[in-house]
């Protein structure tokens, strides 16, 4: 049948002109597996689910499984990837609890092996119990926990603890005795002599161009590999690849300061804790393994920056209800006072004092501590090791991780949306033609102004809002064109939102309210 359909009418459906949000967070964990793990050493394991598969991949008692397990406990939404490493032909660390005597009363002794939260073994002591019998109980308890990162071996009351991973990782396993029982003495010997870590030089090659906003790097003995990798990604052509490495250290104040002072990078976050050498406490002041602390920090950082993630249980939101959900806006919210719910308290009298903490922050070391009520562990100010510009001049541009996060998220929003808006655009120094995809300097400047307004609004809160701030932005943006190259060169100054870190108040007394 002949069909007549006049006039010709065509209606095209065109995508809405919407902005592009920032990319989802990704965290990379680098660490050692044990022989029972099925993962291939050096390969990238992507999108590890919240299903306990890390135990099969890396071995339940491995350094790497421990990191991912603790991170997943806090964060079940962010993509976690991992590079598993076989132990080198090295030496595992070892330490011991040497129990002597015979109990003359009943009580309980708690032996902490690596973690006061996860591996605190409470051993009941009956009156008349011998050192040998208590050693057997402790050995049995440790061996029964298949996630504990050490093997226990008792010899008539001396329980030797040997790390399940070779290398220096075992040296960072803290040991602590809690409690006392009359007639029983315990000598605690720190974990030590772990030697020869895996070769790390080319470990990150397998990543290719994948971006990780956070890399958990538990090897403070080799900061240069990850620093070189991330510093090169801070400002790259035609891409956004920047990220930071969380690197834990347990050492003396002097050694931490010396390490941080030798670094100068916006990509490195050193998480420091004071080493204890008291009779019943060996290792980190906050009794948790260093790599576990780094993993928990990474889990919380990525959760804070994940769009719509529920973070009300971690951050203070009483004065800002919108802050109870994660997203790029949290880049400008201070890290300090963020709850660390799965870390133990630092015992009274241990850890760095106020003066030392300030010195560490100046050098570029982040310290976790207890809150004022002394009932929770919280983050302090989180800093990078960046201190000076390339000419050696003091520079605070990237001193605080919030500054890095704020700048990074603002940069990514500009980049993503410029890519979309001008994906197939003509360029002219003349007028733009309505209905045609064509841009000039004024068009580009106007679009950047719109993006600035987004970043200053309630969804992002990264740049300063208000008429004065927008005027400042407009007065400090310049767009120049080169039509022969099809190139637009933009310079702009963006005033960022920072954090309220100090309040100074002068309070003068008065003895009368008259005159």
Structural class, judged by helices and strands? Answer: alpha/beta
In terms of per-residue confidence, which ranges show pLDDT below 50 for 5 or more consecutive residues? none
Shape: globular
How many structurally independent domains? 3
Please report the number of helical segments: 10
Rounded to an integer, what's the Rg over CA atoms? Answer: 28 Å
How helical, in percent, are the residues? 10-25%
Which band does the percent of strand residues land in?
A: 15-25%
Give the tally of β-strands. 20
Multimeric organization: single chain
The CA-CA distance between the termini, in Å, is: 103 Å
Largest sheet: 12 strands, mixed
String of helices and strands: EEHHEEEEHEEEEEHEHEEHHEEHEEHHEE
Report mean pLDDT, rounded to a whole number.
96
């Amino acid at each position: 049948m002949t069909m007549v359909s006049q006039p010709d009418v065509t209606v095209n459906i065109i995508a809405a002109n919407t902005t592009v949000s920032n990319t989802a967070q990704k965290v990379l964990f680098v660490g050692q597996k044990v022989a029972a793990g099925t993962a291939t050493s050096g390969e990238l394991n992507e999108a590890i689910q919240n299903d306990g598969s890390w135990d099969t991949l890396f071995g339940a008692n491995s350094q790497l499984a421990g990191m991912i397990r603790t991170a997943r406990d806090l964060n079940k939404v962010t993509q976690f990837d991992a590079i598993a490493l076989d132990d080198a032909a090295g030496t595992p660390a070892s330490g011991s609890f040497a129990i002597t005597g015979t109990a003359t009363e009943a009580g309980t002794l708690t032996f902490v092996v690596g973690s006061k939260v996860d591996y605190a073994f409470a051993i009941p002591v009956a009156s008349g119990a011998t050192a040998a019998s208590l050693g057997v109980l402790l050995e049995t308890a440790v061996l029964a926990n298949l996630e504990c990162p050490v093997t226990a071996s008792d010899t008539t009351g001396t329980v030797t603890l040997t790390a399940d991973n070779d290398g220096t990782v075992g040296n960072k396993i803290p040991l602590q005795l809690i409690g006392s029982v009359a007639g029983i003495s315990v000598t605690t010997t720190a974990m030590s002599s772990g030697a020869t870590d895996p070769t790390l030089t080319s470990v990150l090659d397998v990543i290719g161009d994948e971006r990780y906003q956070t890399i958990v790097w538990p090897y403070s003995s080799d900061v240069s590999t990850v620093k070189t990798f991330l510093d090169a990604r801070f400002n790259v052509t035609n891409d956004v690849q920047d990220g930071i490495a969380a690197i834990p250290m347990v050492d003396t104040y002097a050694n931490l300061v010396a390490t941080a002072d030798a670094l100068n990078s916006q990509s490195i976050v050193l998480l420091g804790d004071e080493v204890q050498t008291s009779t019943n406490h060996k290792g980190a002041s906050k009794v948790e393994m260093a790599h576990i602390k780094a993993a928990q920090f990474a889990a919380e950082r990525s959760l804070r920056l994940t769009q719509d993630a529920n973070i009300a249980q971690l951050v203070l939101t009483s004065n800002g209800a919108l802050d109870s959900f994660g997203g790029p806006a949290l880049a400008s919210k201070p890290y300090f006072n963020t709850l660390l719910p799965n870390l133990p308290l630092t015992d009274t009298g241990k850890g760095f004092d106020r003066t030392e903490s300030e010195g560490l922050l100046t050098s570029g070391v982040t310290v976790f501590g207890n809150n004022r009520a002394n009932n929770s562990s919280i983050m302090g100010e989180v800093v990078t090791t960046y201190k000076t510009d390339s000419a050696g001049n003091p520079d605070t541009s990237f001193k605080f991780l919030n500054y890095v996060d704020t700048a990074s998220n603002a940069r990514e929003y500009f980049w993503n949306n410029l890519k979309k808006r001008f994906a197939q655009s003509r360029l002219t120094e003349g007028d733009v033609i309505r209905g045609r995809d064509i841009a000039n300097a004024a068009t580009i400047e106007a679009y950047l102004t719109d993006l600035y307004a987004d970043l200053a609004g309630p969804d992002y809160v990264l740049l300063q809002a208000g008429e004065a701030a927008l005027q400042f932005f407009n007065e400090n943006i310049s767009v120049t064109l080169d039509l022969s190259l099809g190139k637009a060169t933009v310079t702009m100054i963006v005033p960022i939102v920072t954090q309220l870190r100090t309040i100074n108040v002068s309070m003068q007394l008065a003895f009368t309210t008259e005159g």
